[in-house]
Amino acid sequence: MSEPTDLLRPGAGLGEAEFRELADNAPVLIWRAGIDKQCDWFNKPWLDFTGKTQKQLCGYGWGDDVHPDDLDLCTRNYEQAFDARTSFSTPYRLRRHDGIYRWFLDHGAPFYRQGEFAGYFGSCTDITAQKELEAHQDVLVSELNHRVKNNLQLIIAFLQMSKLRAQGEEARQLLESAIARIQGVGTVQAELYRSASGTVDLAHYLPHLIRASIEAERDDSIHLSVDADTAYAPFKLASDLGLIVNELVANAIRHGNQRTTQIHFSLKRLATGELQLTVSDRGQGFTATQLTNAGAAGSKLSGQGLIGALAKRCGAALNRSNADGAVVTLTLPHP
Questions:
Q1: According to the model, what pLDDT value does residue 263 have?
Q2: Residue whose C-alpha is closest to residue 93's, from 141, 48, 49
Q3: So what's the pLDDT on residue 1?
Q4: Domain ranges of the chain
Q5: How far apart, in whole angstroms, are the C-alpha atoms of residue 328 and residue 16?
Q6: Which of 199-203, 249-253, 317-321 has the highest mean pLDDT?
Q7: Which of 18, 203, 249, 330 qualifies as a cystine partner to 14, CB 3.0-4.6 A?
Q8: What is the pLDDT at residue 303?
Q9: How far apart are CA 46 and CA 51, in angstroms?
Q10: Cβ within 8 Å of residue 234, ≥6 positions away
Q11: For residues 100 and 130, is the Cβ–Cβ distance under 8 A?
């Protein structure tokens, strides 16, 4: 296969005039840099967009039109990729000739002449419409988050009122459990909303969720230790895992040692590629009946059915055991 610049040699492909014609009529902004990192050519659409001449843009003159907030990232990505001879992609705002900034996605890659590094070619695609859509979606998500939060608070308030009027200890405990679960849902939803990408860092998200649950108890006797490997998961899986962990922590607090509650959270990547999540405590542990019939109707372990159903939905293997307290382990396929 011919290298890109071989196309400019007579008889090898496009001649220089044909290449210039192609580049100057392309629907993107195109640039070229030599081995010294200095840009030495821009196509006509770039000149038309900025209203600048080749002389004004060459070297690092093009940087004068990059938005000041984006310039450091733009030049850093470019220079790091250049030194490593790797391709790169960087979004940044570029000033048009009328002073208006528009978003572009700059793709750059090294090129070679007869096997020798000769510099970089790059193209910039206008992504302003995409950025505006993302901003609009952010507003909608923020509004949705606000409404969900308010609705959950309203439901909790109704349940708390019902708890005050409830007849019998069993009814009050059921309402208290429902309130705790809805509060857990609210915490999960709030944490997921803070994630800016399509995936969630479980090593940050799940321990933060546990700490929020512990802080809500306002009990200094509850202590948490964490040992978590970095692992990312899509929103849906992260949401289910958050609900599971919230339920496990609630159980650990409810059935823990009367004087102090020790909760340990572990998230480990196994050699098989699977992800193993463990929540353990130093409490009274599981009874033999709870270990053998934890998912059955009538189980005395609160929320066991919910944990089992969520684990199944996650495709996780669920295991319960005793080791100086209760130990619950979920083993998930690679997220």
A1: 92
A2: 49
A3: 32
A4: 16-130, 195-332
A5: 68
A6: 317-321
A7: 18
A8: 64
A9: 8
A10: 198, 199, 200, 335
A11: no
- Say if residue 160's pLDDT is above 90: no
DSSP 62: G
In CATH, what is the architecture of 16-130? 2-Layer Sandwich (3.30)
Fold of 195-332: Heat Shock Protein 90 (3.30.565)
**In whole angstroms, what is the distance from residue 275 CA to residue 278 CA?**
10
Report how far residue 205's alpha carbon sits from residue 186's, in angstroms, rounded to the nearest whole number.
14
Distance from the Cα of residue 297 to its chain's centroid: 37
Residue 163 · residue 180 · CB < 8 Å = no
Distance CA 67, CA 92 (A): 7
**DSSP H or E stretch at residue 277:** strand 275-281
Choose from 1-10, 64-73, 297-306, 321-330 the range with maximum mean pLDDT: 64-73
Residue 125 parent element (H or E): strand 116-126
Distances (CA, A) of 318 to 94, 277, 310, 324, 326: 52, 10, 10, 19, 13
| Cα gap 180→96, rounded to integer Å | 54
Would you call 50 helix, strand, or coil by DSSP?
helix
Structure tokens given for 50? 């900025």
Q: How confident is the model over 66-90, as a mean pLDDT?
A: 95
| Phi, psi (degrees; rounded to nearest 5) at 34 | -85, -175
The pTM is what? 0.50
pLDDT at 299 over 60: no
Q: pLDDT > 70: what percent of the chain?
A: 83
- Classify 260 in phi/psi space as left (phi over 0), alpha (psi -120 to 50) or beta: beta
